[in-house]
Amino acid sequence: MLSFLSDKVLVSLSDENTCASIFQKLKSTYLRDGAVNQILIRKRLAMLKKKKEVSMQEHLKEVNGLVNQLKSCGVKISDMDTIVYILMLLTPEYDSTESAIKNQPSEHVSLQFVVSRLLDAETLLKVRRVSETKAAKSESSNDVAFPTNKQTLVCFKCNKKGYIARFCDNSVVCHHCGKLGHKKRNCRNFTSKKPPFKKEEAAAVSFVVGEGEAKKFIVDSGATSHMCSQREWFEELKPFSGTVSCATKSSLLEVAVIGVIRGRLKNGQEIVLTNVLFIPELHGNLISVKQIQKAGYSVLFKGNKVIVKGQDFCVVRTEFQGTIR
Fold first, then answer.
1. Which SUPFAM superfamilies would you find in this protein's record (predicted)?
2. Rounded to an integer, what distance in angstroms lies between the CA atom of residue 101 and that of residue 97?
3. Measured on CA atoms in the order 305, 306, 308, 309, is the torsion positive or negative?
4. Per DSSP, what are the bridge partners of residue 301?
5. Does residue 227 carry a pLDDT above 50?
């Protein structure tokens, strides 16, 4: 290494006795870690606008070279800083690509992602220029202009023709199964595990409580418990402390007591509702499908009817009279 140095440099190294001290002396001479060198490199980087005759690959290589020079001077530069430099030095023809990159979620923007998008944009610009040139020549010769064949597009990742890397299946990774060639929303393993959408249903059923008139209850698939707002309908009451969230009210409703309500249908069938929550503020009275099913019965909403069945017999069959929202 010393044989390649000039006599002036060798003279400046005459006082150094070790390889480490010689290397540090050469480093201070040629790299100049001081602020002046950093300012000069940053200035060159800020003025390095991409030229039309220079390819994007060469331009990015030149930017990366200056960034590495700054890093060798002890400057800490993150990938995001490099991305800022790259986007700052683009020409106006890349404005749409720059805007698309800036609108991406921050967790998706990486140095590799930005480089890939810029190379794709350069390919599209080249195709557009060729197409415009052919169209102009065709117009001047009174011929019909046709778009450029898509076979001129080349993916720089798989080297296949017909598309750019942005649409290459080999670059798409499923975040659910980890396989190439599809996205999570199209993954069979992901879509097959999605539970079917269940719509909450409700139907009104009337039965007689005590010796009074028939009282209307709503058989509701969305209710977690039986609920009633009429205290006089209860036969047994026990203290209870809790709250219930109601879909028609923004606040929670207080539950003070819980009890039993007995009644009978028009056909004489006796109805016994246990663990009914007494809620004075509730508008209407609800029979919970979930509680019916816990008691061993099945509930079927079919057409405009609701059917409650035991193991061997039908308990309730009634037509829809209204819905709860």
1. Retrovirus zinc finger-like domains (SSF57756)
2. 6
3. positive
4. 306
5. yes
Contacts of 139 (CB under 8 A, 6+ apart): 145
How far, in Å, CA of 210 to CA of 262, rounded?
Answer: 8
The topology under which CATH files domain 214-324 is Cathepsin D, subunit A; domain 1 (2.40.70)
Q: Do you know the residue count of the chain?
A: 325
Q: Are strands 252-264 and 270-278 parallel, antiparallel or unpaired?
A: antiparallel
Residue 92, classed as helix, strand or coil, is: helix
pTM: predicted TM-score of the whole model, two decimal places: 0.36
User: Taking Cα atoms as reference points, which of 120, 225, 132 lies closest to residue 166?
Assistant: 120
**Is 228 within 8 Å of 235 (Cβ atoms)?**
no
pLDDT tens per residue, range 9-31: 676 677 777 888 877 777 666 65
Residue 282 Cα distances to 134, 226, 227, 234, 325, angstroms = 75, 12, 8, 15, 13
Decide the pairing of beta strands 236-245 and 252-264: antiparallel
3-state class (DSSP) for residue 208: strand
* Structural domain boundaries in the chain: 32-124, 149-190, 214-324
Residue with tokens 């390649």: 4
260 forms bridges with which residues in the sheet?
Answer: 236
Average pLDDT over residues 90-103: 86
Instruction: Give the helix/strand (H/E) hosting 24.
Output: helix 19-30
Alpha-carbon span 25 to 29, nearest angstrom: 6
